[in-house]
């Protein structure tokens, strides 16, 4: 008993030391800023004056728009840190780090349970393997871009519920030998409730049944003492949900076409699947060859696979991925640990790395799938190296990972340095270059911003978004080059417009009318938006791009004095997408053009819709605050009362 207690105390103490080390290496990153997707998702905290009562609580938690479920559990978790917006990012990041430590603890527990299935292992070996596997995952620098990216708490919560579900499944699996009814009840609870909670945190949790099926078919199946699962239960709880997931993933391409581009992407389901063969292997490369700068978030420079041999690495990657999966299935009985680690990794990516119209790559997608990647290696080390050597090696690797993560975390704690490092690492990424330039500009380093964009334009001369950003910064720092403005006009003829260009075109319209912007006129804005509109393939009013392009061309026409044409364009935009944000901006431009009556009609419409309480989700996130709309109405009413109404406005 004394020996058992000593071993338990030693294991617990070792894990507590790893948790403390994890907190220490992540601490520098707690001082970082909100970034990118944090803003659109978290600013809903401030709607209606903050989350202060049941109505605002319900509107916030159940008004999410980041996925089909709205992810209410994730939104609920953000209330732990703030109930209004803007807020302090420190508390959000602190909670993320604590959640990461909790997930590491769950992984340690699950790994112990998995190793319990390997009866040849002594308890001390199980503990050592579990400590190293969970410790390396906890301290891996590649996960900094998930843990310190506040909005990716969604991925972390989904992983947490999946790990809890797997833990309960394994606990119930052992119970089957002595108490079958209790065992199946626990397993059903683990998989069923785990799937629901994980999915309502982030939708990739819907793959839990598939991940458990991989576990059951490998390590569990290899244990001769455990009885086989009840076939009916297995089909209902594990197999049918996995088949349903596959059908759901295939539905879109089958109905809309494998070779038809997604409405908001410049690639098709076929091209996405081909590209993912390369992407899932690139994740593995970054996992097994870690970097001191941690993970990335800019992958817009990733070459899309347009065919199985375009590029040729697509074919090689497809062969390797299919080979790994096939090998794991064939060898699942003789090499169960290795088979489990590989199949679990690919099963975790079943949703985000197949046919769903997501962007091609984000590092947070392997937060859960990476959990057992080191398990086969650590297993081999435990079986083949002497105790002193393997312990020394384990401590050395843990220390190395801790140092790398501390470096990456320190980088995430300094937003200015972070963006510059990303720009240097990804010279072909338009997003990394423009993000760094915007950071420099916002911090008063105007000439550095201009120079960075000029150099980026030399490397990527044919990107419309980069060149437009370049001339916008030029116009605010001495004047836009006529040659560069002409190049933007030329590139706008080729398009294609993307919905992510919305804010960029807004900057164009705003800058064109500003006295501080030299070299870009309202006429230029009108020409650029007209060329984008004419070159667009989105001719259906149902398309988001149709609404955006008519909206911005209408504003440009209105600003340039072309009232009649501008109003017709804006009317088409509102018929296509009756966005309150869009309508309020139109009201502002109408007021600037002297169309006070029309501006008031639009603003009052927006006010009525906001007061109705019917606006929720993405529509609410994109809507203007009610107090700003009311202020606008008062100002325009005063202007309207103080000036004679124009004949044109009377007629309308």
From TrEMBL:
Which InterPro entries does this entry report, sorted A to Z? O-mannosyl-transferase_TMTC, TPR-like_helical_dom_sf
Do the record's keywords include Hydrolase? no
Keyword list (alphabetical) reads:
Membrane, Repeat, TPR repeat, Transmembrane, Transmembrane helix
**Which residue ranges run through the membrane?**
7-27, 97-115, 127-144, 150-171, 183-200, 235-259, 308-330, 337-358, 364-381, 393-412
Protein name in the entry = Tetratricopeptide repeat protein
The record lists the organism as Marinobacter vulgaris
Q: From which lineage does this chain's organism come?
A: Bacteria, Pseudomonadati, Pseudomonadota, Gammaproteobacteria, Pseudomonadales
């Amino acid at each position: 008993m004394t020996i058992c207690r000593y071993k338990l105390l030693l294991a617990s103490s070792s894990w507590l030391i790893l948790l403390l080390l994890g907190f220490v290496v992540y601490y520098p990153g707690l001082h970082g800023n909100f970034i990118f997707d944090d803003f659109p998702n978290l600013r809903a905290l401030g709607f209606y004056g903050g989350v202060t009562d049941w109505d605002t609580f319900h509107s916030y938690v159940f008004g999410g728009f980041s996925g089909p479920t709205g992810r209410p559990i994730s939104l609920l978790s953000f209330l732990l840190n703030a109930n209004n917006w803007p807020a302090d990012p420190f508390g959000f990041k602190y909670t993320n780090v604590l959640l990461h430590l909790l997930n590491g603890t769950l992984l340690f527990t699950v790994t112990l349970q998995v190793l319990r299935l390997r009866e040849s292992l002594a308890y001390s070996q199980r503990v050592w393997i579990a400590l190293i596997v969970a410790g390396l995952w906890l301290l891996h620098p590649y996960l900094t871009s998930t843990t310190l990216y506040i909005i990716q708490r969604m991925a972390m919560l989904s992983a947490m519920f999946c790990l809890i579900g797997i833990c309960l499944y394994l606990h119930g699996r052992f119970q089957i030998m002595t108490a079958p009814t209790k065992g199946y009840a626990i397993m059903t609870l683990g998989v069923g409730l785990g799937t629901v909670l994980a999915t309502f945190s982030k939708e990739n949790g819907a793959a839990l049944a598939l991940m458990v099926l991989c576990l059951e078919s490998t390590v569990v199946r290899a244990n001769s003492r455990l009885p086989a699962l009840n076939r009916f239960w297995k089909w209902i709880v594990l197999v049918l949900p996995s088949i349903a997931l596959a059908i759901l993933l295939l539905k879109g391409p089958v109905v809309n076409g494998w070779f038809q581009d997604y409405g908001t992407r410049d690639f098709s389901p076929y091209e996405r699947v081909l590209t993912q063969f390369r992407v899932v292997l690139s994740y593995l490369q970054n996992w097994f060859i870690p970097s001191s700068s941690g993970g990335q978030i800019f992958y817009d420079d990733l070459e899309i696979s347009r065919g199985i041999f375009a590029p040729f690495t697509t074919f090689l990657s497809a062969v390797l991925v299919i080979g790994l999966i096939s090998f794991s299935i064939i060898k699942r009985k003789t090499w169960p640990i290795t088979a489990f680690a590989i199949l679990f990794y690919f099963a975790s990516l079943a949703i985000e790395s197949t046919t769903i119209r997501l962007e091609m790559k984000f590092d947070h997608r392997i937060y859960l799938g990476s959990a057992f990647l080191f398990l086969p290696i650590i297993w081999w080390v435990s079986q083949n190296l002497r105790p002193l050597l393997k312990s020394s090696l384990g401590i050395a690797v843990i220390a190395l990972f801790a140092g790398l993560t501390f470096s990456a975390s320190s980088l995430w704690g300094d937003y200015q340095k972070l963006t510059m490092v990303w720009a240097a690492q990804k010279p072909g990424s338009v997003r990394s270059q423009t993000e760094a330039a915007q950071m420099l500009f916002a911090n008063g380093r105007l000439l550095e911003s201009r120079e960075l964009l000029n150099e980026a334009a030399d490397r990527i001369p044919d990107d419309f978004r980069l060149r437009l950003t370049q001339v916008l910064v030029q116009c605010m720092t001495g004047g836009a080059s006529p040659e560069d403005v002409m190049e933007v006009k030329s590139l706008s003829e080729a398009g294609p417009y993307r919905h992510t260009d919305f804010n960029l075109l807004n900057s164009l319209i705003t800058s064109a009318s500003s006295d501080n912007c030299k070299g870009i006129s309202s006429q230029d804005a009108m020409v650029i938006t007209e060329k984008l509109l004419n070159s667009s393939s989105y001719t259906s009013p149902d398309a988001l791009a149709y609404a955006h392009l008519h909206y911005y061309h209408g504003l440009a026409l209105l600003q340039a004095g072309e009232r009649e044409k501008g109003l017709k364009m804006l009317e088409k935009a509102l018929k296509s997408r009756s966005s309150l944000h869009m309508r309020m901006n139109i009201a502002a431009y109408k007021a600037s053009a002297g169309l006070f009556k029309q501006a008031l009609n639009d603003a009052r419409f927006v006010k009525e819709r906001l007061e109705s309480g019917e606006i929720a989700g993405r529509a609410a996130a994109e809507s203007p605050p009610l107090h700003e709309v009311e202020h606008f109405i008062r100002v325009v009413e005063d202007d309207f009362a103080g000036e004679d109404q124009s004949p044109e406005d009377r007629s309308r």
